[in-house]
């Protein structure tokens, strides 16, 4: 018997155990319970950390996918715009070739604009539409029957091409800014 138990024991309690005695068995039970709780807590933390890491990785991969698709769409739009520039210059130098090559390149530009619309964002769609509008204005002016008789004068050609070049330059600047920004 320990001293505290002896002090509170009654005279007839000699030999009988009084109070709670912590034995090795109870110590093992508490240690096992504590270890089990610790393992359960560690498992929950590891699970949540793993889920967060997978979600973060998925978000990063999605942003990369969006940025790559935008890059491809913008690159195709710029290439289509360059083809329109070449067709316009060819049409201006050789008025007799007709509008068919220019119309084909404008259709290609419209298809490239549709892809820009698909990948966005809206600011890029507006920028692409500005390029298409400027190119269509040139094509419309060159397609008039009077152009066959009276070619575009230098001032009118310069104004229309400057509008197209400015729109193309703005599209490139907008594309650069969009690609540098984090994708949604």
Secondary structure: elements and pairs:
Layout: H1 3-8, H2 24-93, H3 100-119, H4 122-143, H5 145-149, H6 154-180
Helix pairs in contact: 2-3, 2-4, 2-6, 3-4, 4-6
Transmembrane segments: 26-47
Organism: Streptomyces mordarskii
Keywords: Membrane, Transmembrane, Transmembrane helix
SS element count, helices: 6
Task: Assign an overall shape.
Answer: rod-shaped
Distance between the termini: 74 Å
Count all strands and give the number. Answer: 0
Q: Give me the CATH architecture of the domain at 64-180, please.
A: Up-down Bundle
Spatial extent as radius of gyration:
39 Å
**CATH structural fold name of the domain at 64-180:** Four Helix Bundle (Hemerythrin (Met), subunit A)
Strand content is under 5%
Q: In percent, how helical is the residue content? A: over 70%
* Average pLDDT: 81
Following the backbone from N to C, one meets helices and strands in this order, namely: HHHHHH
Contiguous uncertain segments of 5+ residues = none
Largest sheet: none
Structural class: mainly alpha
CATH class call of the domain at 64-180: Mainly Alpha
Protein name: Secreted protein
Keywords: Membrane, Transmembrane, Transmembrane helix
Transmembrane segments: 26-47
Describe the structure.
- With 184 residues, the chain is an all-alpha fold.
- It has a domain at 64-180: Up-down Bundle (Four Helix Bundle (Hemerythrin (Met), subunit A)), CATH 1.20.120.
- Helices cover 82% and strands 0% of the residues.
- It contains six helices and no strands.
- α2 (24-93) runs parallel beside α4 (122-143) and α3 runs antiparallel to α4 (122-143).
- The longest helix has 70 residues, at 24-93.
- The two termini are 74 Å apart.
- The model has no long low-confidence stretch (mean pLDDT 81).
- This is Secreted protein.
- The chain crosses the membrane at residues 26-47.
- Keywords: Membrane, Transmembrane, Transmembrane helix.
């Amino acid at each position: 018997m320990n001293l505290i138990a002896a002090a509170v024991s009654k005279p007839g309690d000699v030999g009988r155990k009084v109070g709670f005695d912590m034995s090795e068995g109870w110590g093992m039970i508490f240690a096992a319970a504590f270890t089990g709780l610790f393992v359960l807590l560690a498992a929950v933390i590891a699970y949540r950390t793993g889920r967060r890491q997978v979600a973060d990785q998925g978000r990063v991969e999605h942003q990369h996918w969006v940025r790559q698709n935008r890059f491809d769409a913008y690159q195709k739009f710029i290439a289509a715009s360059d083809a329109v520039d070449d067709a316009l210059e060819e049409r201006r130098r050789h008025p007799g070739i007709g509008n068919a090559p220019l119309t084909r390149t404008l259709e290609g530009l419209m298809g490239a604009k549709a892809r820009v619309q698909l990948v966005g964002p809206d600011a890029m769609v507006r920028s692409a539409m500005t390029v298409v509008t400027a190119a269509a204005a040139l094509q419309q002016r060159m397609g008039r029957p009077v152009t066959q008789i009276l070619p575009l004068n230098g001032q009118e050609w310069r104004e229309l091409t400057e509008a197209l070049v400015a729109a193309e330059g703005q599209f490139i600047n907008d594309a650069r800014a969009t690609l540098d920004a984090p994708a949604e």
